[in-house]
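Quick question about two entries, pasted in order.
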Amino acid sequence: MGAGAAGALVAIQLCETAARRRTPFELLLIDPAPEAGRGIAYSTLDPRHRLNVPAGKMSCYPDDPGHFVRWLCRHGEPGVRGGDFAERYRYGAYLADTLGRAIMAAQGVVTVRRLRTRATGCRWTTLPGGDPTARLELADGRTVDAHRVVLATGPSRANAEWAPEALRGNDRFIADPWAPGALDAALGQGDKEDVLLVGTGLTSVDIAMTLDRPGRTVHTVSRGGRLPQAHAVDPLPAAACTTPLHGLSLPALRAAVRQHIGRVMRTHGDWRPAVDGLRPVTAEIWTSMSLEERAEFVAQYGSLWNTHRHRMSPATAEAVARMRRTRRMRTYQGRLAAASARPDGSLTVSLTTGDGPRTLPVGWVVDCTGPGLRLSDTADPLWRSLLDQGAAMPGPLSMGVATDDGRLHGADGGTTRPLWTLGAPRRGELWETTAIPEIRAQAATVAEAVLDPWTAPALPAGGGSARRRTRRPTDASGFPLSTHAAAATAYRLGVDRLLKVRAGAPQALRRSVALDPGFAVGHAALALIGHECGADVDVSRALADARRAVRERADDYERSFVDVVSRRVLHTPADGDAALLRHLGEYPGDALALAVAVPTIAFSGLRDLDGTTALRVVERTAPAHGESWFHTSLLAFMRQEEGRYDEAGALAEQALAAEPASGHAMHALAHVHYERGDHEAGRERLRRWLAHQGRGGTHRAHFSWHAALHELALEDTVAVRRRWAEQLSPGKVDGVRALVDSGSLLWRARLAGAWQGPFPIGDVLDTAPVDVLERPATAFVALHAAIALTAAGDLPGLGRLRVHALRADEVQRSVIAPLCTAFEDILEERWTEAVRGLERLLPRLPGVGGSAAQREIVEETLLFALVSAGRCDAARGRLEERLDRRSSPHDRRRLTALSS
């Protein structure tokens, strides 16, 4: 009942949880609004009405905080950040869209009906031996029956008890400013008349901005006379209170909170982090207070708390300040004492203020006092029927209703009826319960409670009894999967394509979770390839789905795999590596996990500085894989990293003989040819493989990059330009792959003097998402973002990347941040400083991941800086060292030029 924000959030959780569990039911959404999700709060069309919580805290999902921000980025606001304050109407669109997607994803499991009317009554009956059933009476005369009822009715309407009798019956009194068309008259012919808003909270601020007109004064009055405080433009993180607050008397609590705010003010110079730090413990503090203390708090401190806790966005605060400076908005502390009609239909109002009585001529009086606190006084027929029959009872201080974690208490104190509520009706027991961060958590809890009695084992594809299935399907490595056969088949296909480095893995994995939304490992694999392979995947969403699903059905292997992915995405590289090593120690035959561990072409791998850990893992897991082509491919790659090129080449050829499409084996062979200096042979082998067995491969751009390295070494600049145009230019390659391969090749070509004419690095940067350039998730991607920004001469971009790196994981802090500084020195032609910085970084580069050939670009940049700094002897020494390892016509010519 109710399909505004709270109802939509519950419906989203119900649909998605039911789809994961394959729990069929019918969902009725009863609400008269034309669109679900908006309710009163998010129906406003005024673009000046903004959320009073940053976008980064407004996700529908408690376990996926960035969901709303990503939605905004996909829907016309690509540069939005988590700290921005979106328009309220946009948030309503987000809720409606997310609900629509959840309903579509649950098709075949959940049947959804919307009844555009109001519920006016709810009567409970219990048949002998049956469950309680609700008969819902609707405003259009129909009745419907339901087995579970969620009251998502939002805040109760104010009853304007404060208003003088003469005012309540006057047409110039607007009792509900959010009602459709309520403000039309004040915005039309009467838009020059002054207006009085009773209330100075967030509602008053919104209405004041809507009614603001040149020549009009908007007067506001309240007992406290306080307007909401403003959010900081550059907010600081919340500061938790170090003093235990639970169980303190009200005077002791007040003193402790003031001390907390004082400490934070001295440390940060701002009170906001202190108030934000109280948010996680507000409900706990509230429940520990006696009823008398709660009543005293509401009477004495409620207004002060609300003005500091529920703040205006910076843009709104600036608009209000401008209105007050120009006297178009005036605020009074006091109350409305009387009102009378004037001959022209306008009003004369009398205020009692701290400065004495004041009389104002106004055209309109608007009730902006906000929702009523006492649900027991409500005139709403639905709540009235529940209270009158004892199905609900007033909550503490008669605010809202009494519940047990959202389930309503009846007058007898029991919770026998399957009847829940959330949000504003829980105000008396929680105090803070009207903001999205609280409501979304309650929605998840309510959905879980509603579905728990119905939850059954996951159904196999095509229906049928789950009990008949005695064996679970397995993945390619033989591990059982908690899903049905069709989803497992799609998953095996996706993993097979990943292991062969062939196209189609994301599509197959998406198919697996579409067939079974509760397939935890499928969601985790999607999150993994989005995070580490640059696949077009909403990583946070996929990971949240995996973590939800793994709690509901999974074995130890699946829980371990999801934990690995979670730690690689959400935690530090060290945590991710430790989890991966534990997993492979327990499950050495897991080919996908092994692929993740080895830093080859697909994944960033284990990020130890010298690569020995990955090698030990490959060697230790050999007995579990036998003579498989995949394990042989990885061993070939590790042997070439050790410099054992003959052995690596033989292993790669062995793997290719068993599986000619093995991208890992061909990749290892490409490195062998490059490190041996077999440039002609290497280029030709790559050409043949790409034309035949590698035609369906992913990362074709990377193999083309390898071929281009041979061509740079051979100083075949015509071939380099042709390969760029045909295989590596934007449009042929996009996103992260364009940074890693196309961008780095352009910089190498420029350093080698092999690129003349227009330099298309800007086209490469245009294909990369802003987040990848400024907030890369891994050090490997960050390295290539820095290279591309340097090639583009983008000093500000390097600065932003450096700031991000300093706040990221240890490898980014210790390697990427100083690398950005060294590249800035390159662009500013501070050659000595650049050389010093790059020389210090070279030994630490293996920790970034990737191959030696990829990281070599930093040494190429160092050689350029050495020559530019006039340190030709040092440059010669490095080139001689390299030529001792491998042949290169380009390096030989450079050495000759430096020696002449």
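Here is the second entry:
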Amino acid sequence: MPRNTLFRKMVLLLVMMLVPIVGLYFYSNRTSTEVLGTELSQSSANQLNFFQTQVNTNIERFSLWPTLLIQDPDIFGFKDVFLNSEYFNLDMINLVKRIQTKLNIQESSSDWKTKLYIFSPSLGRMVSDNDVEAYDNDDLKKRMRPGWQVKKMGKGDEAYYSFSLFTAYPYSSFSHPEDANLIIELQFDSSNIQNMLDKFKSDGRRDPIYYRPDMGVIYNRSADRPLTDSILRQLRQEPLKKAENRRLELDGETYLVNIAASDTTGWYLIDYVPLKEIVAPIEQSNRLFYVSVGLTLLLSCLAAYMLYAQVQVPVKRLVLAFKKLQHEDYSVRLEAKGNNEFGFVFQRFNSMVGQIQELFENVYMERIHVREARLKQLQSQINPHFFYNCFSFISSMAKLGDMKAVVAMAHNLSNYYRYTTRQERDVVPLQEELDFVRSYLEIQKMRKPQLEFAVDIPEVMRKWEVPLLVVQPLVENAVLHGIEPKSGAGSVRIAGEVGPGEMRIIVEDGGRGMTEEQMEGLRRSLTLPMSQDMGCGLWNVRQRMLIHYGDTAGLRFAKSGLGGVRVELHWPIEHTNIRTGSR
């Protein structure tokens, strides 16, 4: 059978089909992941920019408040008020209350928590939405700076940042607060930015922060501060750009970090997210796909194996059986497994082979019968000469008055021809075959007194049955081809042995013997069809042994210790036991 079985071919075909699919999926998935990463980075950058725009818009709007407040008549007129006594008069109190109301309204106009303070150098008072108090002019001078001022307040986890913006009137007096008629301060703290970071984080971001290298960090309220600080330490290793995204490796995990700077405040909005959170759905989808491909391949292999086991294996067994038939092994049978189409085919095959075997056995038997008939014909041609010799011997002995020799020859000759003419049975007890052989040898010994023979067969073997006329042809060959061509005395020995798993009858002679080449030629000729050039006795014996006992029975040839040829007739002991027991 070819080595590339149907199972291998089907599995190879499935693999060839799945490999391009997996390759295309891998390429498509990688491309999709790259596009997703790019789009995600762009989306994150847009969201950061939008957040920064919101913060910047609020701060820029706050920057306009002092200018708007100065335009208010009450607040603008507050710069010209002078205190003539320690206490405010009624008009002053009403003015202050109107100013406080306007400050409160202005502070409430934004969702950020802000504070507005109005400083009057002429009064030496500071007005807020809920208080009027004196202020330290020297401290005010120290705090007044152009633009937004940021100051860190508190310590540890309670630290926060205060943002303040000062405006003076007239504007030229900003650098000389003592010359100013009116000073307005706007304040808010970092809790407002924290509120926006918390809202920004609720959209799915992971710990967004506000960071300024010279100031510090504004965390969202649920920030993982140790992780955030570790990421910031890595970010500080390279200068920060206004807008960028980076990938950082930290404790074996990759983080996607997005950065957006504010031109208004100088603070960086930094947002980071573990890359595995981004690719987790993709990896889950990949795992599902690969598991599906694996299951598909497994089920396909199972289906291919079932097809192989249910189709190719029976076909292979059928082909091997036909090959055995081709080599003339008609004992082959196929065992049907399962109730399927091949079971029916196997039954029909077994029936066909059984019929063929029976037909061939019948043909072989007919051929053997033909050979036996031909043997008898040849023997009948020799018999006149055999008869002549025997009767010539009887006549000579009668003339000499040796009546014992006459009686012995007549008795042996009678036994010989009585046995050769028996046709009622195919098998006989070995004892009867030996009696027939002894009669033949006695006749030959009377003709050639120098002939010696011995029969050594165990008693247990003498009761077993053997095919008719299987020992006598071996003895006859020993006498005719081994003893007679040799001048002088000769001997024939007939023995029986019970070997391991087989029975043996041995016929050996002390004749002229055979060379190894002649013996090998004899063995080879017995395996070939019968020809006109070869004797039919041994061939006939071997064929009948094969039919009666199977392929393990037959003839063996070797040199004899007596000087001639040793012929061994053997067959399986179990066949003998079965045949003996059946009778």
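Reply: The first helix runs from residue 6 to 70. The two ends are 46 Å apart (CA to CA). Hope that helps.
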